């Protein structure tokens, strides 16, 4: 017997959706609409007209939070009126077909089937949905890396810490950049082999469906190894050879969870049907221009049996012990359509965001501009600071690049940037009011990181200037960061000299 919720939410595809007119219509303001029949403005400052960014703000950090175009903000606001014109009609009838359109648009972009794609609030949520749904056994291993994003490695840590048994164990690959793609692959394979040797008595027979030796019979499955792999690490911002890592993992019988938080809208040629990761997730609110609070979770049909419950568990949960399980399986898509009342507008903005990108010339055009800007900008910054870029060949660069700062280099982790030295540096910079600079040393990363926030005469100019330079977008133009770069160079040089004087440390540049 199907309940009221199932009736309303399951059958709406076949219903002609009544309009939900709102008395309140807002007319689009400047930059909030565009004429598809006309060419877009050239990239760089003319495009800033279509973004809400403060004129005085040079956003060199598109990567952390994204920044959405005004037509997307406008569409989201208009939708808010529509939702509240008749919350019942929207939530019970109009929402699901709109959500399906968003899922379809995202699926097309990443080369997946719409039935393998759902939307969730963010990458952390998607990652937790996957890792908390695996049924762990004592002796299972999760492989992360020193570059794994904080909340992600903490999720792994939590799984290994929590009181319920059984708990998996966590292993960590040390990526000490700069590295070539070949070196990353070597380290990845070596870690898997090392783990198997270290636990030679463990039978890793729970392998993913596409690996040799896969057995459907749960009784035949003993332990598993799950690798959590970044497609693009955030610190430093480096594009990893994740597709090749998926192949290695498949050969080795290791499950892959791809944290591609930065990929959609930044990385080109994501074709999940070709690459076949076991799980993949990406934020739509970073590079794709969807409203904040929207990420895509991809689970191929062959692995949907693993995702027994959405987070949180929803109305559409199907117990494996119920008769419905035979027909619906885990009901992956419908479970994720409604996981409790929330604001659905971020999910619905996806097609608007993609349409705007198409008007700009499409994914490749945007990428080509931003990639060149990231490469040129990084070289210019290195030139101004008298240092070098992390990756001259550009294989690690999509649209985020990395530059060395003119500060002493540690030869072994912690040698120079001990907490005491970091405190010294901060103190030194605190004395340099009105400039505030924080130095952050990320474990095992290349030695020097700096976070710069410049505040002058009430005008804020923010510049993230650390080893990871967090990414450029097509509303910027070349040379834009010169002023803060020069400012930073002076400060960095002074700090290096002062640090050297105070501590008697060597100076690398
Ligand atoms: C690599 C990586 N994974 C996961 C996340 C988490 O994203 P969110 O905060 O949207 O959950 C981030 C955020 O920047 C990230 O860089």
Textual characterization of the structure:
The chain is an alpha/beta fold. The protein has two domains: 93-354, Aspartate Aminotransferase, domain 2; 363-502. 38% of the residues lie in helices and 12% in strands. The chain has 17 helices and 14 strands. It has helices at residues 4-10, 45-48, 62-65, 70-85, 87-109, 123-133, 150-161, 181-198, 242-252, 272-275, 324-328, 332-337, 345-348, 350-360, 363-385, 419-430, 482-503, and strands spanning 117-120, 141-145, 169-173, 225-230, 232-234, 237-239, 255-259, 279-283, 295-298, 401-402, 435-439, 450-456, 459-463, 468-469. It has a seven-stranded mixed beta sheet with strand order 1-9-8-7-4-2-3, with helices on both faces. It has a three-stranded antiparallel beta sheet with strand order 11-12-13. The radius of gyration is 24 Å and the shape is globular. The relative contact order is 0.14. Residues 1-15, 432-469 and 503-509 have low confidence and may be disordered. Bound molecules: pyridoxal-5'-phosphate. This is PLP-dependent transferase. Residues 69-157, 222-391 form the Aminotransferase class V domain. Pfam families: Aminotran_5 (PF00266). GO terms for molecular function: transferase activity.
Shape estimate:
globular
- CATH fold topology of the largest domain: Aspartate Aminotransferase, domain 2
User: Which architecture of the largest domain does the CATH hierarchy give at level 2?
Assistant: 3-Layer(aba) Sandwich
- CATH homologous superfamily of the largest domain - what is it? Type I PLP-dependent aspartate aminotransferase-like (Major domain)
């Amino acid at each position: 017997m199907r309940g009221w919720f199932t009736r309303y939410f399951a059958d709406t595809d076949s219903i002609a959706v009544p309009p939900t007119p709102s008395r309140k219509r807002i007319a689009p303001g400047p930059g909030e609409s565009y004429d598809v029949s006309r060419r877009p403005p050239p990239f760089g400052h003319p495009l800033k007209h279509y973004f809400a960014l403060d004129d005085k703000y040079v956003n060199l950090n598109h990567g952390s939070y994204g920044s959405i175009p005004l037509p997307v903000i406008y569409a989201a606001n208009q939708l808010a009126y529509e939702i509240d014109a008749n919350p019942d009609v929207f939530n019970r009838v109009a929402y699901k077909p709109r959500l399906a359109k968003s899922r379809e648009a995202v699926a097309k972009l990443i080369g997946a089937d719409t039935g393998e794609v759902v939307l969730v609030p963010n990458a952390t949520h998607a990652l937790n949905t996957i890792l908390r749904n695996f049924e762990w056994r004592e002796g299972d291993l999760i492989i992360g890396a020193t570059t794994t994003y904080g909340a992600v490695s903490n999720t792994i840590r939590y799984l290994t810490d929590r009181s319920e048994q059984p708990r998996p164990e966590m292993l960590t690959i040390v990526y000490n950049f700069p590295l070539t793609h070949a070196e990353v692959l070597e380290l990845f394979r070596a870690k898997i082999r090392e783990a198997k040797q270290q636990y030679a008595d463990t039978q890793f027979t729970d392998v993913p469906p596409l690996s040799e030796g896969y057995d459907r019979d749960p009784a035949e499955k003993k332990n598993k190894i799950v690798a959590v792999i970044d497609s693009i690490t955030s610190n430093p911002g480096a594009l990893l050879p994740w597709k090749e890592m998926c192949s290695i993992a498949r050969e080795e019988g290791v499950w892959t969870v791809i944290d591609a938080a930065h990929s959609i809208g930044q990385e080109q040629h994501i074709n999940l049907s070709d690459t076949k990761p076991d799980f993949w997730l990406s934020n739509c609110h970073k590079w794709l221009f969807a409203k904040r609070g929207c990420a895509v979770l991809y689970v191929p049909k062959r692995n949907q049996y693993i995702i027994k419950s959405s987070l949180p568990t929803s109305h559409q949960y199907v117990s494996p012990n119920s008769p419905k399980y035979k027909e619906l399986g885990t009901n992956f898509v419908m479970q994720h359509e409604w996981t409790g009342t929330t604001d659905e507008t971020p999910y619905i903005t996806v097609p608007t965001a993609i349409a705007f990108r198409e008007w700009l010339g499409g994914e490749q055009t945007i990428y080509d501009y931003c990639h060149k800007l990231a490469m040129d900008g990084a070289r210019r910054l290195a030139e101004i600071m008298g240092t070098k870029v992390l990756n001259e060949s550009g294989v690690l660069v999509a649209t985020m690049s990395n530059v060395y700062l003119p500060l002493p280099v540690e030869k072994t982790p912690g040698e120079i940037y001990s907490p005491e030295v970091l405190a010294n540096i901060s103190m030194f910079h605190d004395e340099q009011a009105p400039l505030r600079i924080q130095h952050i040393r990320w474990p095992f990363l290349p030695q020097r990181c700096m976070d710069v926030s410049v505040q002058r005469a009430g005008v804020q100019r923010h510049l993230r200037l650390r080893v990871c330079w967090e990414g450029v977008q097509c509303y910027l133009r070349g040379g834009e960061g010169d002023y803060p770069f020069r400012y930073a160079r002076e400060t960095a040089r002074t700090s290096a000299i002062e640090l050297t004087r105070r501590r008697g440390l060597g100076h690398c540049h």
